[in-house]
Known about the structure:
By secondary structure, this protein is α+β, with helices and mostly antiparallel strands.
Amino acid sequence: MNQYEIRNLEGAPADRLLVVILSPVEMNLTLENVIVAPLTRESHGYPTRPWVRVHGEDWWVVLDQMTTISKNRVLKKQAKLDEAGVRQVKSIILEMLVS
Length: 99
């Protein structure tokens, strides 16, 4: 599992419950859990939820709901964040957790 991959979760239809992998590949290779943020199709204008495109559809990364889950729950890769999405996610995480 690579950082910034978008994957679906066990027990959910592929287009219903998506998460983006936030933990770096080094952690993902050695630990049993990964850090993820869910994606949603509804925007509420929260500054902690950057907009991304996945398969031509609008989604928002819900960074205010980051969590750690078992790697066993993370299934098929659906997409990967583009460079603009990665920059937005990094910027918001930096602002949320560091400043």
